[in-house]
Design a protein that fits this description.
It contains 8 helices and 9 strands. By secondary structure, the chain is α/β, with parallel strands linked by helices. It folds into 2 domains: about 210 residues, NAD(P)-binding Rossmann-like Domain (Rossmann fold); about 35 residues, no CATH class. It is globular and about 50 Å long.
């Protein structure tokens, strides 16, 4: 299938590792110009080296805190100036923060919402004039299945993710007339630094493949997912192949969630 990504200008937040990096690698390999954004310059440089080694292209790296609106505005201005515009935005910046309700204080609530919800708001608002000027584009908000089916002791992250889903639906309706599609992906258990730490802390006697297939994860497909599997779905949603898809969410969880 031709994705139609050649020459597209893409921005991926949280792009220095995990799903963000894998998405950047895939989009670059499909011919897109890629900018990756993260807070720390060191990991960004390492990610850029990986992208160049695999695709032969050099990504633009931007150090910025997505929770700070002024930093986001400067980052988007720099990217648009370098690329001449923006066609694709993947709001991927985030981290896990899961505790019981009573263990989450006001500062933790603010920090999580600032990163996961307002980070996406800031970047989308800053990118919107560039997307609109060039006739449209695509935004994907990376959330988690906990936003649809929150479990106990999943706060504040499940609430931030649920807000991200509401943001996605509302934005898709507001921006459709401008040819801007807005979708979300809901991530389940995907191999990441956090999952690897859990593996080494709870089952160091198992190989990764044994841990990934452990039935205690309760995943119908019987394994933890790979980052490239998440990147494949994101790449489809931002591509011309998904030109009639907006305002929806896709679970990337091996069938674990109890909802569509």
């Amino acid at each position: 299938m031709e994705l139609g990504l050649k020459g597209k200008r893409a921005v991926i937040t949280g792009g220095s590792k995990g799903i963000g990096l894998e998405t950047a690698l895939l989009l670059a390999s499909e011919g897109a110009q890629v900018a990756i954004v993260a807070r720390s310059e060191g990991p960004l440089k390492e990610a850029a080296e990986k992208i160049t080694a695999k695709t032969g292209t050099k990504p633009l790296i931007i150090s910025a805190d997505v929770s700070v609106e002024e930093e986001v505005q400067h980052a988007v201005a720099a990217i648009a100036e370098q690329f001449g515009g923006i066609d694709i935005l993947v709001n991927n910046a985030g981290t896990s923060a899961a505790k019981p309700f009573e263990a989450v204080d006001a500062s933790a609530w603010s920090a999580d919402l600032d990163l996961k919800l307002f980070g996406a708001v800031h970047f989308s608002r800053a990118a919107l004039p560039h997307l609109r000027r060039d006739g449209g584009g695509a935004i994907v908000n990376v959330t988690a299945i906990g936003g649809k089916t929150p479990s106990g002791s999943s706060l504040p992250t499940s609430v931030s993710r649920a807000a991200g889903l509401a943001l996605t639906k509302a934005m898709s309706k507001d921006l459709a007339a401008d040819g801007i599609r807005v979708n979300a992906v809901c991530i389940g258990l995907i191999r990441s630094d956090q999952i690897e730490r859990m593996w080494k802390a709870t089952a160091p006697q198992l190989t990764w493949d044994e841990f990934a297939a452990d039935p205690r994860h309760d995943i119908p497909l019987r394994r933890i997912g790979r980052t490239e599997e998440a990147a494949n779905v994101i790449a489809f949603l931002v591509s011309d192949a998904a030109s009639y898809v907006t305002g929806t969410s896709v679970n990337i969880d091996g069938g674990k969630a109890a909802v569509l």
